[in-house]
Design goal:
By secondary structure, the protein is α/β, with parallel strands linked by helices. The chain folds into 3 domains: 284 residues, Metallo-beta-lactamase, Chain A (4-Layer Sandwich); 149 residues, Rossmann fold; 90 residues, Ubiquitin-like (UB roll) (Roll), CATH 3.10.20.580. Helix content is 30%, strand content 25%. The protein has an 8-stranded mixed beta sheet. Strands 9-10-11-12-13-21-23 form a 7-stranded mixed beta sheet. Helix 6 packs across helix 7.
Length: 556
C-alpha cells in the first residue's frame, strides 16, 4: 500500500464567494509537494473592515511550507483569482507562476507595480500543452466565462486526474474569448477523472445559462431609443460586454468614450494579446465633453458602487468635465455582487435626483452571468463523469446544495470549506485534517492579520467614540492642575445639559483628589481608574462607553 497521498486544501473561496486560493499536494503526509491554484482577493465593506483596502486569504500555512511549493497556476485574471499574487509573492518564496497570455499580461503589470520581476509569470499555451510541477502535470483548457482566456485546469497526479473548472459557464458563442467545447472536455475526461473540483456560484439558478450573444440586440435597441447622453457601466474585466456596449453605441451613431483606468487597461491588454481583434474607435474624455449629448456614449467603471470609480463621480457631480442631466440614460449592464447593494443603490438614487433614467439588469435583458447555472452544472457532471465531486467557489449553502446535486447523480461528494484538508487518493474523499484559515488585510501599504487588532480597534472607535484623557503629576505624585479631555465621535452634551468634556473633567478631577499616594505612584493603576471613571461618566451622560486613551505626564 502506498504511503503517499493526494490532498486538496482550500484556503479561500470555499464557504465564500471571492478570495480564491486552492492547494493541491502529493507525497508523504506532512511532506507533500504542493501547487497553488489562484491567489485572489475580496473587497472590504465599511461596516466590517473600515479603512481596509483589500482582503487577502491567510496563507500562513503555505508560507510555513514555502520550500515545498512547486508552482502557482492562475486560471483567469479576475481580482478574486489574481489580485493577491503580487502582495504575497515574496512571502511564498517567489515560486514560478503560470498563466495564459491575457492573464499573464495583467499579472505582470501587478508584479511590476510591486517591484517584482514581471518575468516571474510565465506564459503557457492552451491544452494539450502540459506544465510539469513536481509530481503534477498541469494543462490549461479553454473554458467560457466573463473574462477572456479563462481556463479550467487538468491536473494529472500519480493518484489520478483532477479537473479544476475555475469559474465557468457553458457559452458556445461568448463574443470575445473561447467558446465552451463539449467535445474537448469529453475527450479530456475519457480516460477517467478522479475528482471534479467545480464552480458552485449559480447552483440555485434553475434555468439554463444564457449566452453573451443574446443581449446585444436588447442593448442596441435601448441605446438607439435614448435621446440624451448615454452612460453604461459593467465589470471592467468583461471585455466581451465592453465590446457589445461599444458596438451598440457605434451602430446608434454615437461616439464611444471609455472612462476609468481599469477599463482602459483591460481593453489594452486584450488588444496586446490578440484576444480583441476589433473594437469601435474610442475618443478621449476631454473630447467627449465637447460633443452634443445625443452624440456620445460613455462606458464607465464602477458597476459595483465603488466610491472612487467613474460611476460614483458622475452621480455625485462632474467627472472629467462631464455632467449628467435630466433626460440622460444610465445603464447598469451588470449584476450587483451581494454586499455591494448599498453602494449601487446610493449611486442610482443620486442619478435619479438629477433626472437621469436608470436602467438595471431588468431581469436579464442587459446582462448574463459568467457562471454556470444548475442545469449547466449537471451537464458538466455528465460530461466529466468524475469519481468524486468537490464543490468550490461558493458560500456554504452553495457548496452544500452542489454536493447534494452530485450525490443525487451517484457521485462521491464532500463539502470542503476553507481550512479542510481532503484526501483524494482513495475511492472516496476523506477529511484528513484542518488548518487555521482566515483573512489578511491590506491596510494602506501594510499587510495585517485579522488577529492583530487594528481593524477591531477601528470598529470599536467607530461604534463607541474616543476620549483622550491628559493628566500631569508633579514630583510628589500630586496632580498639577486639573485633567483635561478631548473627545471624538461623541455627543457634545448629555443628560446633565452641560458640555460632556466639562462633566468628564470634573469627575476625573474628583477621583484624582481622592486617590491615595500609593495609587498615584502607579501609572497602571492610575490609567485603569481614569478609564473606568471616563467610561462610567460617559455612560451616565450619553449612554455610551467610549474607547479611552490616558496620557500621564510626570514632572521629575
Amino acid at each position: 500500500m502506498s504511503i503517499e497521498r493526494l490532498i486538496y486544501l482550500p484556503l479561500g473561496g470555499a464557504g465564500e464567494i471571492g478570495m480564491n486560493c486552492y492547494v493541491y499536494g502529493y507525497g508523504r503526509p506532512e511532506a507533500e509537494r504542493l501547487i497553488v491554484v489562484d491567489l485572489g482577493v475580496t473587497f472590504p465593506d465599511m461596516d466590517g473592515s473600515p479603512g481596509v483596502d483589500l482582503i487577502l486569504p491567510d496563507v500562513t500555512w503555505l508560507i510555513e511550507r514555502k520550500d515545498r511549493i512547486e508552482a502557482v497556476f492562475i486560471t483567469h485574471a479576475h481580482e478574486d483569482h489574481l489580485g493577491a499574487l503580487a502582495h504575497l509573492y515574496d512571502q511564498l518564496g517567489r515560486p514560478p507562476v503560470y498563466a495564459r497570455a491575457f492573464t499573464a499580461n495583467l499579472g505582470r503589470q501587478k508584479m511590476d507595480e510591486h517591484s517584482h520581476d514581471p518575468k516571474a509569470i510565465k506564459t503557457v499555451s492552451k491544452w494539450p500543452q502540459m506544465t510539469a510541477a513536481g509530481p503534477f502535470n498541469v494543462g490549461f483548457v479553454p473554458i467560457s466565462h466573463s473574462i477572456p482566456e479563462s481556463s479550467g485546469l487538468v491536473i494529472d497526479t500519480p493518484a489520478g486526474r483532477i479537473i479544476h473548472t475555475g469559474d465557468f459557464k457553458i457559452d458556445e458563442n461568448p463574443g470575445v474569448g473561447e467558446p465552451f467545447d463539449r467535445a474537448l472536455w469529453a475527450e479530456i475526461a475519457a480516460g477517467g477523472v478522479k475528482a471534479l473540483v467545480c464552480d458552485s456560484t449559480n447552483i440555485f439558478s434553475p434555468l439554463p445559462g444564457r449566452s453573451e450573444s443574446t443581449i446585444g440586440g436588447n442593448i442596441e435597441a435601448l441605446v438607439a431609443g435614448a435621446k440624451g447622453r448615454v452612460v453604461a457601466t459593467t465589470f471592467a474585466s468583461n471585455v466581451a460586454r465592453l465590446k457589445t456596449l461599444a458596438e451598440a453605441g457605434d451602430r446608434a451613431g454615437r461616439s464611444i468614450c471609455l472612462m476609468g483606468r481599469a477599463m482602459r487597461r483591460m481593453v489594452d491588454a486584450a488588444v496586446e494579446t490578440g484576444v480583441l481583434t476589433s473594437f469601435p474607435t474610442v475618443i478621449a474624455p476631454e473630447d467627449a465633453a465637447q460633443l452634443p449629448r445625443d452624440n456620445i456614449m460613455l462606458i464607465v467603471t464602477g458597476s459595483q458602487g465603488e466610491r472612487r470609480a467613474a460611476s460614483a463621480q458622475l452621480a455625485a457631480g462632474k467627472y472629467n468635465g462631464i455632467e449628467l442631466k435630466d433626460g440622460d440614460l444610465f445603464l447598469f449592464s451588470s449584476r450587483t455582487i451581494p454586499g455591494n447593494e448599498k453602494g449601487v443603490i446610493k449611486i442610482m438614487n443620486q442619478l435619479s435626483e438629477k433626472g437621469v433614467d436608470v436602467v438595471d439588469d431588468a431581469g436579464g435583458l442587459y446582462h448574463v452571468s459568467g457562471h454556470a447555472n444548475r442545469p449547466d452544472l449537471e451537464e458538466m457532471h455528465a460530461i466529466i463523469r468524475p469519481q468524486i465531486l468537490i464543490p468550490m467557489h461558493g458560500e456554504h449553502r452553495h457548496l452544500r446544495e452542489h454536493a447534494r446535486l452530485g450525490a443525487a447523480r451517484g457521485l462521491q461528494s464532500i463539502v470542503a470549506v476553507n481550512g479542510m484538508i481532503v484526501a483524494l487518493d482513495g475511492n472516496a474523499p476523506k477529511v484528513a485534517g484542518y488548518v487555521e484559515t482566515g483573512r489578511t488585510y491590506l491596510d494602506g501599504r501594510v499587510l495585517i492579520g485579522a488577529m492583530d487588532g487594528v481593524v477591531r480597534d477601528r470598529i470599536r472607535m467607530a461604534l463607541n467614540g474616543h476620549v483622550m484623557v491628559n493628566v500631569i503629576l508633579d514630583e510628589n505624585h500630586e496632580p498639577l492642575g486639573e485633567p483635561w479631555c478631548e473627545i471624538r465621535g461623541l455627543a457634545e452634551t448629555g443628560r446633565s445639559k452641560a458640555p460632556l468634556v466639562e462633566v468628564l473633567e470634573a469627575d476625573l478631577d474628583q477621583w484624582l483628589k481622592r486617590a491615595s499616594d500609593k495609587v498615584l505612584k502607579d501609572d497602571d493603576k492610575v490609567e485603569e481608574a481614569l478609564k473606568r471613571v471616563t467610561r462610567q461618566t460617559a455612560l451616565d451622560e450619553i449612554g455610551k462607553k467610549p474607547e479611552v486613551t490616558v496620557v500621564i505626564s510626570r514632572l521629575t
